[in-house]
């Protein structure tokens, strides 16, 4: 059913690999300019998607486009265009004793398939990164964002046609289960598949794909407030990590607090009370919070509930957060090892030895000391837009920018040598 589509994208990818770097950059700038000038139809399509979703859903904010967000997307595309090309870089070179000259050179993957949920910004981010790195892309978005995705891909393909580039370097599949199955089984057509979404989507893609997969997205994020943590700094970091955008994968899910600092827990959480965050605390933390005096301003008390066995290890994607009490750094590390997802973890402390031990021991793509996990983002890392946050260990790990979505090949030059 989708073979013709995949074949067209594969053919277009071979043409794209031959386009000069400066030409690709010019096309990206043209798309950015068209995006800024063509906001009205994009916002109208997005409004139709939003009308079908409950505004109380944590996914509503992910789905929503605004003029400001579209400007940010366009700026991100220009930033990608301005970055050095990831292609044609010599990663290694050597001359063998027999005179053969070897070079290891970065090259495009070819065709990258993306399966994602209600995130229309992903459509533009993925296209810009794939196009800059010389790969075509096959997109399979969620039903919730289908109108937005079709409008976005239509805009991009229109610019490609005007710029004389085969528009099949980007294709959008319908938001159906059949399309998902097709992209996961597109052997000989799709060189790499990247899922972007919740745990269920990622697990499904990994378990059913016949093409190579890089896992991204799901983030059960913890922050440990150590015995020597600064309360004022901690309150800022915790609030930013939790509430900057609750629906994204780098948002804080669990605050781990050293038992000796329970008296400071209410002060650490006060900014969360102002934002309406519900805390699901274990018994020790719950008692400490309930005994805390009311605040001088803002809500009279925190929104509290007792933690259940399912609380820890939950990616809330909402104004909700778990609180866990521990007696030591080792206990905090054990909690993260059990419940973390390998995405982003943080320690707040003035003890350098504890921080270095935490960073060495925690098995995650991004490990922070005295900074919020909200910084786990390709643009914040200076990589331009990101294609996802990889939580696996083989290949790319953490924010995946241009370099992370290229591969390499060996170029060998000889003068008639033969092997004995």
Task: Write up what this structure looks like.
The protein has 14 helices and 16 strands. With 420 residues, the protein is α/β, with parallel strands linked by helices. The strands form four sheets. Strands 10-9-11-8-7-12-13 form a seven-stranded parallel beta sheet, with helices on both faces. Strands 5-4-3-6 form a four-stranded parallel beta sheet, sandwiched between helices. The chain has a three-stranded antiparallel beta sheet with strand order 1-2-16, with no helix packed on it. Helix 3 packs antiparallel against helix 7 and helix 6 runs parallel beside helix 7. The longest helix is centred in the N-terminal third of the chain and has 17 residues. It is globular and about 75 Å long. 47% of the residues are buried. About 1% of the residues have low confidence.
Task: Describe the protein's topology.
Elements: H1 3-16, H2 21-37, H3 39-51, H4 59-63, H5 67-82, E1 90-95, E2 101-108, E3 111-116, H6 120-132, E4 136-140, H7 146-162, E5 170-172, H8 177-184, E6 192-196, H9 199-208, E7 221-225, H10 231-243, E8 252-258, H11 265-274, E9 278-281, H12 283-291, E10 303-306, E11 320-326, H13 329-339, E12 344-348, H14 352-361, E13 366-369, E14 389-390, E15 398-399, E16 406-413
Parallel strand pairs: 3-4, 3-6, 4-5, 7-8, 7-12, 8-11, 9-10, 9-11, 12-13
Antiparallel strand pairs: 1-2, 2-16, 14-15
Put the structure in a nutshell.
With 420 residues, this protein is an alpha/beta fold. It has helices at residues 3-16, 21-37, 39-51, 59-63, 67-82, 120-132, 146-162, 177-184, 199-208, 231-243, 265-274, 283-291, 329-339, 352-361; strands spanning 90-95, 101-108, 111-116, 136-140, 170-172, 192-196, 221-225, 252-258, 278-281, 303-306, 320-326, 344-348, 366-369, 389-390, 398-399, 406-413. A hairpin with a 7-residue loop joins β14 (389-390) and β15 (398-399).
